[in-house]
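[Meeting: bench + compute handoff]

Bench side (C.D.) handed over the final construct sequence. Compute side (W.E.) agreed to return the predicted structure before the next meeting so the bench team could plan truncations. Sequence as handed over:
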Amino acid sequence: MKPEMDSRINTPVKRSDVIEGQWEKAITWGIFGLLSLLLGLIIFKYGDGWFQFGKFQGLDLTAISYPFLGLASILILYAIAKAASSRKVTSYTATCPYCGHDTMFVEQPMDDFACEDCHRRVPVMDGNVLDVTGIRCGFCGALNFMSDKTKVLICEECDREIPLLDAKTGEMRHAAKGYARVDDDAVYELMLVGVGKDREALINSLQHMLAMTRNQVKDMLDNLPAPMLKGINRRKAEMLTAQIEANEGRAEYRPMST
């Protein structure tokens, strides 16, 4: 079973998220079914002889219970079907090249995703997880990683650009001017301040970004503005802000007082 997906959303969907969604529906409709059943049984048992006075024998309201009992049967069967469908969700396992952790999706991922364990962005091209190569920064010696998709590489520690040779042109690749910031040593706090109409796309993105459950993300969206990350550098704050805005959210990053 494959979930219906908006073609505009490229974020790979985890199998656990789909199963969680199926069980949420099953529990919700199951509760409504049980309430309808309980109400129907009460009316069926006590519906005879209502509003008796004098010689009037009262009203027989037992017939009103039949729609409730019928609706209860439909809702409970629907809940059971939803619970059963969670066992039929397809799965595709993708292995993180950084830490070796396996993540299960409903289908082969066609776009990059965040590893559940190490939280690094896993590069994907044409449905295949790419191998990564470790490179030491010549300025600070920090270990960074690159793949075949890497166009420019900025050191995660010192924010300096690591020179890369373009195999096709033989020339050095360079980041856009102003992207690599070496003069900003401040740390920032990233805040989520707004949500667009497509909440589902933003929920999927924030789940991968923050390694949170769907319910945790939903609670955060209902209590805006909400802090997301603290103590990050400006480059990372800019990248995450752009990613949130691409999924119809609004974020702000603010320098933290030292």
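W.E. noted at the follow-up: Residues 1-9, 176-182 have pLDDT under 50 and may be disordered. C.D. will use this when planning the next construct.
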